[in-house]
Amino acid sequence: MIIFNKLFYKLVKISNWFIFITSALLIVISSFLIYFIEPETFQNPFNSFWWVMTTVTTVGYGDYYPISILGKIFAIFLYIFGIGLISIVITKVVDSIFIYKRKKEEGKLQYHGENHFVIIDWSRNANLAIQEILNSDPSVDVVLIDQLEKTPFSHERVYYVKGNPIHKEVLDQANLAKARAVFIFSNELTEYGNFIRDTSFVDGKTLLIATTIERNFEHIYTIVEVKERENIHNFIHANIDEFILSSEAVSQLAVRSAFSPGASKIVSQLLSKQHGDDLYEIKRRSHWHTYRDAFEELLREGATLVSEGQHLDINRRLDEKIAEGARLFVICDKQTYQKLRS
After folding, report:
1. How would you class 264 by CB atoms within 10 Å of its CB: exposed for 0-12, middle for 13-18, buried for 19 or more?
2. What is the model's pTM?
3. Domain 276-341 has CATH 3.30.950
4. Fold (CATH) for 117-244
5. pLDDT along the chain (342 residues), means of 10
6. What is the rounded distance in angstroms from the CA atom of residue 142 to the CA atom of residue 150?
7. What gap in Å lies between CA 145 and CA 170, rounded to an integer?
8. Separation between Cα atoms, residue 82 and residue 95, nearest integer Å
9. CB–CB of 84/149 below 8 Å?
């Protein structure tokens, strides 16, 4: 028994490709050999293949079996070597699945997808952002970069990359060059779990990450969370596309709700795509010359044109011509948006 255990252990250590090719050859050759030995018993090569497969997988239906001495001797050979070899193959497959799952959880795999979102640094805001992305688009992937031992968010469309985001090889592992956008969230914890109290240091860390990204991937749309508005001017040279001031946003929304009760619910609904009407960007149609053309046609189709880019004064500019490259945003439900796109 000890000898067989040592032999099995050595076979398991052999290259996967060698084991798979050897197993395939064994099955094919055995199928033709048993058919050659007993053609009247198995009638055709497929039946012999069926018998070999049920034998090496220990199923053994008993609908076909060798009756000659030579056939039985060959069957004994297949029992000893075939079943053992297939057991090793099954062990290899299960082991590969386990290793893949473990490496994915530990952030050691290369991500090869495209048009995905990259989120840097785990935090409560990063958690909410991932959930919102997954709810907004059922086909998009999210890649999270952090230095935690294991992924903090378990989901089939969320991939984890462990490493320091100021290193280009870590960003390459997340395939940032082919991402749709990257979010850099403020992280108040150090690699060793210490809390950073000075917000300037937190923004300084964010700036270092943003600079690395813009230096190597300047074409990627970059969204950065900043703790203090006074620190935004330090990011100017990094060419950041958008800034998020989370602390200010919460305070401003709270005050707005006090002056206009229910305002926070309206904003929350527009920010989330889980229910109700949402904010969508649509393409300009060729026959739209002025904002009035677009506004009135969209209104008839169930959508409200609210802005061109960040400009919310559409109602006062209805007779102006729509500029080339204008980005039009509407408020409507998902069904209406799907019709507008078609």
Report:
1. middle
2. 0.67
3. no
4. Rossmann fold (3.40.50)
5. 55 68 85 88 88 79 80 84 78 82 90 94 88 86 93 92 93 94 81 65 84 90 84 76 72 63 71 74 91 93 90 89 90 88 82
6. 16
7. 8
8. 20
9. no
